[in-house]
Design a protein that fits this description.
4 helices; elongated; mainly alpha
Length: 103
């Protein structure tokens, strides 16, 4: 049974063969130019990826700040509620509360 993965592998293999044939028939100057172009494109992609990563950090930092402010505005007790829900349970167990009898 032939599935999409097999078809894609065949197509990629055929393209690699064509590219190898084309490369072997190029002059030395054409090969150097092609490699230069590939390096320029790779560096451009790298720069774009770095910019996108930096933008994502800034975006999520801003989103966190704005989200926190919005929650505090619309749900004033949110900070206490979150602390009560996710606070340090170990410190609460060791400290005697008002309901706990001291021995």
């Amino acid at each position: 049974m032939v599935n999409n993965k097999h078809i894609a592998t065949f197509i990629l293999g055929a393209l690699a063969g064509l590219a190898a044939g084309k490369y072997s028939s190029m002059s030395d100057e054409e090969k150097e130019q092609m490699i230069k172009n590939l390096k320029e494109k790779a560096n451009g992609l790298k720069d774009d990826a770095v910019k996108a990563a930096d933008n994502a950090k800034d975006y999520f930092s801003e989103l966190t700040t704005k989200g926190t402010d919005a929650i505090k505005e619309h749900f004033p007790g949110a900070e206490k509620w979150m602390h009560d829900l996710f606070g340090n349970k170990e410190s609460e167990k060791t400290e005697p509360g008002p309901d706990t009898e001291k021995a």
